[in-house]
Write a sequence for this structure.
């Protein structure tokens, strides 16, 4: 089954709403409509930027989509600081990142938390981008495939095949995030193939053939071509390089198969 590549730009805690508007305008200008037949491109700004990004994208009928970096596992109520799935859906978000390693490490999110947030996203019609990834010690011990398979199984435990078919999975080795130390294309392929095999086990072969598996960790225009050229890698979750319009447009164009903008 042909899977359309997805390039998702996770801005993390960068750019206020005015800067967000400027960046989205530049990306849209650099990436004409023809590219969007071959690649889905989404921006994942901080919560405070989403309304401005929505207004721009809807007002100018841009072909980019947008999403959020996190979602509450709760529906509503006394959860100070939390943002619900229904709030994000009302703002027109397509995607929500769930279980990013920075949330797992810095905010103590477990596989159970990630599963609850994944359910909250699905319940509200959002596509969760469920993140997994091993630290350096696990990679150096050679246990990375088993570790990622376990993390994925824990993060998707009990979901139906239909629910799993609506999810995007992102493999992000923690040692490659923001470090400039990108995994080799073969490293990315090895884990993404194991992810797809695990989806076949948890759901079925058809769901596994259709689910999009992204790689994340120091992706740039220099390495994206080789990475998304791997059989089981269907795009990228991009951090630092998504904050530069030209670079993000260029790497999206490469994922689309070119030509360069
Ligand atoms: O969500 C994005 C990843 O954490 C990758 O970040 P990076 O491209 O800055 O390494």
């Amino acid at each position: 089954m042909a899977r359309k590549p997805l390039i998702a730009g996770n801005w993390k805690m960068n750019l206020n709403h005015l800067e967000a508007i400027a960046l989205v305008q530049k990306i849209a200008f650099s990436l004409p409509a023809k590219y969007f037949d071959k690649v889905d491109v989404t921006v994942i700004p901080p919560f405070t930027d989403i309304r401005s990004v929505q207004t721009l994208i809807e007002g100018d009928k841009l072909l980019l989509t947008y999403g959020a970096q996190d979602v509450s596992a709760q529906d509503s109520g006394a959860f100070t600081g939390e943002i619900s799935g229904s709030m994000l859906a009302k703002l027109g978000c397509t995607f929500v990142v769930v279980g990013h390693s920075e949330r797992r490490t810095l905010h103590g999110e477990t596989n159970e938390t990630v599963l609850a947030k994944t359910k909250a996203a699905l319940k509200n019609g959002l596509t969760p981008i469920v993140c997994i990834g091993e630290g350096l010690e696990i990679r150096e011990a050679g246990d990375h495939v088993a570790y990622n398979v376990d993390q994925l199984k824990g993060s998707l435990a009990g979901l139906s095949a239909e629910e799993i078919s609506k999810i995007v999975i992102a493999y992000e080795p923690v040692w490659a995030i923001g470090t400039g130390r990108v995994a080799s294309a073969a490293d990315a392929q090895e884990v993404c193939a194991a992810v797809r095999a695990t989806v076949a086990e948890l759901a079925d072969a058809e769901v596994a053939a259709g689910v999009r598996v992204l790689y994340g960790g120091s992706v740039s225009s220099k390495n994206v071509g080789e990475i998304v050229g791997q059989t089981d890698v269907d795009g990228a979750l991009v951090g630092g390089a998504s904050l530069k319009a030209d670079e993000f447009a260029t790497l999206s164009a490469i994922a689309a198969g070119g030509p360069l903008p």
About this structure: DSSP finds twelve helices and eight strands in the chain. The radius of gyration is 17 Å. Residues 10, 100, 172, 177-178, 216-219, 237-241 surround glyceraldehyde-3-phosphate (CB under 6 Å).
